[in-house]
Specification:
alpha/beta; FAD/NAD(P)-binding domain; Enolase-like, domain 1; seven-stranded mixed β-sheet; 21 strands
């Protein structure tokens, strides 16, 4: 039997994605000895299979779309995208799926990396089983932080594993554009990957079970993005469910290639209406599940495979030493929000380790992730873009706020006309009529992703509308939409 090495640290972090890295960085900077455990690439999903490669695929698509709306420039960008060059840049932005730079950063800040699968074996104890068969027991004096993230959740369809479907990982790392691609789902991953691959040469068919796209955003966001996808050539079908999927092998193909490489034969998807749809690949973008099934939660009285419920300092409820940060707590499955939580958790762990005051309950304090409850920003990188922060109108009403939605078409904004000929977009602010502050803001249109931080500040800061009136937008920019919204509210 392999001998087990034992090491004691102040803090042990399980998962070295951006969330785990930020927890480790904060605790180490506070003087706490910190170990981090990772069984894949340091840098996690965001760096290699999500944020970075997906936005690298989408940026040329959006830049070309913007250029095509400008007379004098549109004629120069009539041809197709150079898919090979786009994929090469995508590979670069994903560091060619090598984590040398991330490891070097960990070494530089003094965090010890333990490669292998980490699982709890009891309170404050993590056993790491290395790829070489080694076993290392890490004991934490103060805290263990679970930052293992999520994996794609696939539907329960018979034979789906044999079909070798794409998930978000294959969709962002594929080596070529399939001639035909089926995208199942209507959320962020679905619309972004449909946008990318349609423009990189695939014929995309989207099968959406619901009535529209992006159901968690204002309805007009999904409507405008659906219009953009359809105009780009996507075959978008709503109110459709997939009842079965099979893959017919390519004639004389021999052993199949990997899903990300092609050469897999033909996928056949059958809908609830009995329609048969064929493609080279099928992407299921149908949700996420927590990666907590094999990390030993049962040894500390928690359910394996569950989302972990936490307080505002990210401490798992019912414990005084276990933290769950990022996607695993199901508060907001977004990298930037997970990193925000990591900053909060790192500060809280350090304060508790030093015997300092426990500020967990203080609203907007250094140890409370208050923004999780009503000020979460998000950008959807499609054509047009969608960006939102805070509550939608429906969410605000459901929460019991007395609110009013104020809508403005970007056609009234001079900067929009300069940005692009025929600019199409819409903005909404959700006003709390009792407190005269903003509960939420949504923008849809080309380039609106760069507007959302101003809205985030307004929502987080609970800036009174009479004060916001004095935040003068520069002319002629897209930001002038703020003036139009406030004018519409004042009547």
């Amino acid at each position: 039997m392999t001998e087990t090495e034992s090491i004691v640290y102040d803090v042990v972090v399980v998962g070295a994605g951006p969330v785990g890295e930020n927890v480790a960085d904060r605790t180490r900077a506070a003087g706490l000895s910190t170990a981090i455990v990772e069984d894949e690439l340091v840098g996690g999903e965001c760096s290699y299979w999500a944020c970075m490669p997906s936005k690298a695929l989408l940026r040329p698509v959006i830049a070309r779309a913007d250029a095509r709306r400008l007379p004098g420039l549109s004629q120069a960008v009539r041809g197709p995208l150079d898919a090979e060059a786009v994929l090469k840049r995508r590979d670069y932005m994903a560091s060619d799926w090598k984590d040398d730079g991330q490891v070097q950063w960990l070494n530089g800040v003094g965090v010890d990396l333990h490669r292998g699968h980490g699982r709890l074996t009891g309170p404050r104890t993590v056993l790491v089983e290395g790829p070489d068969g080694s076993r290392t027991e890490l004991t934490a004096r103060h805290a263990v932080a679970v930052c293992t993230g999520t994996r794609a959740a696939l539907p329960d369809l018979p034979g789906l594993a044999e079909v070798r479907p794409w998930t978000s990982r294959e969709a962002t790392s594929a080596r070529r554009a399939p001639e035909r691609l089926i995208v199942v789902g209507g959320g962020v991953v679905a619309v972004e990957m449909a946008t990318a691959w349609q423009n990189l040469g695939s014929q995309v068919t989207m099968l959406v079970r619901g009535k529209g796209l992006l159901p968690r955003m204002e309805p007009f966001a999904g409507e405008l993005i659906a219009q953009g996808l359809t105009e780009a050539g996507v075959d978008l079908r709503t109110g459709v469910s997939v009842t079965s999927v099979t893959r017919e092998p390519a004639a004389g193909s021999g052993a199949p290639d990997t899903p990300a490489g092609g050469g897999n034969g033909t996928v056949v998807a059958v809908t609830d209406a009995g329609e048969r749809i064929e493609a080279e690949e099928i992407l299921f973008a149908t949700g996420r599940a927590p990666k907590t099934d094999t990390i030993g939660l049962e040894t500390v009285g928690l359910d394996p495979g569950s989302w972990l419920s936490v307080d505002d300092s990210m401490r798992v409820e019912g414990t005084d030493w276990l933290y769950a940060v990022g996607d695993v707590n199901h508060r907001a499955l977004l990298t930037h929000q997970g990193k925000y939580q990591a900053r909060i958790a790192g500060a809280a762990i350090a304060a508790r380790a030093s015997g300092g005051a426990d500020e967990e309950s203080a609203a907007w304090g250094a140890h409370a992730a208050t923004a999780d409850h009503g000020a979460v920003p998000q950008v959807v990188f499609t054509d047009p873009e969608a960006a939102a922060v805070g509550l939608s109108l429906a969410e605000a009403e459901q929460a019991g706020h007395r609110v009013r939605a104020v809508d403005v078409d970007f056609a009234s904004v001079a900067g929009a006309g300069l940005y692009a000929e025929g600019y199409r977009g819409r903005a909404r602010m959700v006003v709390d009529l009792e407190e005269e502050i903003l509960r939420g803001v949504t923008f849809v249109g080309p380039g609106v992703g760069e507007l959302i931080h101003s809205a985030t500040i307004a929502v987080v800061g609970e800036v009174p509308l009479d004060r916001l009136w004095h935040a003068v937008p520069s002319y002629p920019t897209l930001s002038e939409v703020w003036l139009r919204l406030l004018e519409a509210y004042r009547g």
